[in-house]
Amino acid sequence: MAKKFSRTSADRRKVGRRHPLAAVALIAVGLLSTGGAYALFTTSATADTSASQEQLVEEGGKLFAANCATCHGMDLQGTSEGPTLIGVGEAAVHFQVSTGRMPLAASGPQAEEKPVQFTDEQIEAMYTFVGSKSPGPGLPDEETIAGNGDAALGGELFRINCAMCHNVAGAGGALTQGKFAPSLAGVTSTHVYEAMVTGPQNMPVFNNNNLTLEDKADIITYLQFLEANPSPGGFDLGNLGPVSEGLFIWIFGLGAIVAITVWLTAKSN
């Protein structure tokens, strides 16, 4: 008769025990799976972004060749009809094209704002193309143009750096040889920032050594404050200062006094 054997509790524990490295192996497999999936996703996203960027550059190159290269050259080197665009960056192209200043309608003292001739997608393609050829100032981030800066400090910086041309209230003003500083009323914060970093027309360039990003944000905040708070004194006479105000008093104020005097004299006679 065969002898019957049974496992003891100690034997059962020995058989059911995991290898000491099993937990490490499971963690390693999990990390490799997660890392592989992330790498695959990131690679796919990067490839899609790269393809989209290349398509933008290609489309922008076609638009540039058809609308800009005659004056600025196929390689952005400039010609006798237009300046070089090497180093101007995306901000300059976006400012000039999205305000209608470019393409230039006719030669003159300076390019004037006019209806925009391109869609937002076409404008993006053009500034992406120029930026890919030669890096320069880029478009602002949302934090800089959000209007969350110090309006009082921005007003002080504006009066020091900008008011001599644009007027203390941003109403604009005349310059020499038929040139002018445009009014800043209704100008978007993006365009204000781009003008500061690229110096269009007769405007100087305010890089981050002249005005920091915080300074630019403060100036933009001040201009937004002016936009949202009209003159508390009533009719602002174009915000052109004491000249227009004095002229108004001489013509209408003294004119009214003379008219009343003549009326009183004629009535007494």
Automatic annotation (TrEMBL):
Enzyme Commission code: 7.1.1.8
Record-annotated Cytochrome c domain positions: 55-134, 149-227
Lineage top rank: taxon: Bacteria
Membrane topology: Multi-pass membrane protein
Main localisation: membrane
Reactions listed under catalytic activity: a quinol + 2 Fe(III)-[cytochrome c](out) = a quinone + 2 Fe(II)-[cytochrome c](out) + 2 H(+)(out)
Protein name: Cytochrome bc1 complex cytochrome c subunit
Organism: Conyzicola nivalis
